[in-house]
């Protein structure tokens, strides 16, 4: 076991040779948590973000004027085609057209399931390195994998987080392929968010004045992936980011976050905190729904700040089919087009879009490159 000074020295031998530093970090298969466990007091150079990106102290809104809407789904009322359902759809429509983010409560996922999912992710990331490293890979064809920074070798600066990804639909892994530390809760949570995802597709369809099953029939909810992030406490949080500012390359994301906070959305030209709400799930729209809605709905930039408290834990469920072969082509929905509202984007498959998005590295916008 190396002492703190040896670990610090190992990652800062040669700042000019970034690839060497990245490979040295990657080869440990211990992620950011491995650095923290070794007791480092200064973050390695590969994690230091630009001055512009780290200027969040003066750019964040702390006022009560700008807040992301919290929508009460009143689960039983969603089943009825009446005034209450229309009121919920109207709120979803306004949020989708403006900030692209909202939180939902009374969404049908039991609180104990939410809590167990957070704890399951914690157990995975805090188990012994010898067990955890067996899942460490950058092979995108693996349904279950653990790593630190999917774009480690493409990004300008690595982010202070580790990640476990599990492709859960339409072709889920065998139960024995899932980590024993969180196997049962992942299967359970996946079923719950799938049901919520189907409800959201109906509400988003109706918010676009389409028939309720329109987006479902376009296979927007056919696939989903659980992306579980672990953000250890950072000794120098003002020098790095938990996640660089970005938009998501999917149709929409259902996010479960713990109580620590740090998630922000760029709204009305400033960064706005998305404060944790007890029992709530965060919904954010992705690039593909902005594309198919022809800019009617917004895919907003968001980011996560590094913190000194840690570990922060979140579980993002991405709805798209990009992890599985699909010939489904997506372009602006024809029912939304007219002489006044002409197509604004080229057609693409979900998989091709994500491959292009990933090739640019997190934080480099991809959607504009598909604009006609």
TrEMBL record:
The keyword NAD does not apply. Its cofactor is Fe cation. Keywords: Iron, Metal-binding, Oxidoreductase. Pfam families: 2OG-FeII_Oxy, DIOX_N. It comes from the Eukaryota. Gene3D superfamilies: B-lactam Antibiotic, Isopenicillin N Synthase, Chain. One of its GO terms (molecular function) is metal ion binding. Residues 221-322 form the Fe2OG dioxygenase domain. Belongs to the iron/ascorbate-dependent oxidoreductase family. This is Fe2OG dioxygenase domain-containing protein. It comes from Lupinus luteus (European yellow lupine).
């Amino acid at each position: 076991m190396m002492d703190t000074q040896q670990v610090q020295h190992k990652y800062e031998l040669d700042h000019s040779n970034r690839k060497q530093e990245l490979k040295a970090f990657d080869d440990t298969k211990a992620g950011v948590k491995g650095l923290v466990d070794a007791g480092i007091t200064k973050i390695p150079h590969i994690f230091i973000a630009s001055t512009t990106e780290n200027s969040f102290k003066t750019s964040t809104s702390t006022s009560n004027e700008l807040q992301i809407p919290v929508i009460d789904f009143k689960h039983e009322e969603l089943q009825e085609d009446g005034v209450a359902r229309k009121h919920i759809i109207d709120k979803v429509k306004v949020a989708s057209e403006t900030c692209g983010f909202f939180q939902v409560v009374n969404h049908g996922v039991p609180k104990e399931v939410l809590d167990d999912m957070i704890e399951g992710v914690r157990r995975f990331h805090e188990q012994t390195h010898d067990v955890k490293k067996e899942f460490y890979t950058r092979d995108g064809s693996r349904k279950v994998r653990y790593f630190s920074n999917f774009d480690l070798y493409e990004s300008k600066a690595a982010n202070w987080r580790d990640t476990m990804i599990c492709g859960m639909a339409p072709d889920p892994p065998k139960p024995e392929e899932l980590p024993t530390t969180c196997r049962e809760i992942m299967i359970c949570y996946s079923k719950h968010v799938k049901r919520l995802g189907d409800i959201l597709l109906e509400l988003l369809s109706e918010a676009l004045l389409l028939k309720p099953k329109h987006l479902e029939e376009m296979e927007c909810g056919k696939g989903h992936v659980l992306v579980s992030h672990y953000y250890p406490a950072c000794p120098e949080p003002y020098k790095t980011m938990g996640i660089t500012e970005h938009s998501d390359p999917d149709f929409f994301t259902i996010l479960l976050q713990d109580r620590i906070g740090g998630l922000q959305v760029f709204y009305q030209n400033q960064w706005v905190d998305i404060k944790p709400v007890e029992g709530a799930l965060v919904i954010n729209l992705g690039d593909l729904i902005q594309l198919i809605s022809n800019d009617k709905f917004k895919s907003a930039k968001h980011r996560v700040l590094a913190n000194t408290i840690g570990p922060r834990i979140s579980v993002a469920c991405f709805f798209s089919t990009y992890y599985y072969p699909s010939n489904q082509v997506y372009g602006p929905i024809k029912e939304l087009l007219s002489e006044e509202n002409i197509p604004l984007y080229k057609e693409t498959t979900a998989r091709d879009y994500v491959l292009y998005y990933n090739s640019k590295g997190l934080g480099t916008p991809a959607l504009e490159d598909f604009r006609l």
